[in-house]
Description:
α1 packs parallel to α4, α3 packs across α4 and α4 crosses α5. A 4-stranded mixed beta sheet has the order 1-2-4-3, sandwiched between helices. It contains 5 helices and 4 strands; from the N terminus they run βαβαββααα. The model has no long low-confidence stretch (mean pLDDT 94). The radius of gyration is 14 Å and the shape is globular. By secondary structure, the chain is α/β, with parallel strands linked by helices. Helix content is 47%, strand content 18%.
Amino acid sequence: xxxxxxxxxxxxxxxxxxxxxxxxxxxxxxxxxxxxxxxxxxxxxxxxxxxxxxxxxxxxxxxxxxxxxxxxxxxxxxxxxxxxxxxxxxxxxxxxxxxxxxxxxxxxxxxxxxxxxxxxxxxxxxxxxxxxxxxxxxxxxxxxxxxx
Length: 148
């Protein structure tokens, strides 16, 4: 498996150890989803970048925390983009580090690349426990605990 990390927003460079942690998280998510092989890219971007991607590909003119773009081929799984500002605000609100929240977003994004979703309650009952299990193995608390 090949995981490429691209940093477009300079603020991500100040998050200590973010590169290795995100690659480890993506690898753990791929393993948990039984991915045979493949490559993916994680883009660490700005809110502005994610807003443009969200607008252009989803028709929503707003920044979001993470977007996943599954690829059509088998060897290249797709791309994940994570917004610094949104992730940092969410991390502060949840009283967690930006790095831990970014790891969660990377795991979440990889699972989307692998076909998991959470639009319906039924889908969420499959995807969210898998996320929680992967994050626990990475030493990160359940992000859904206490959520409504």
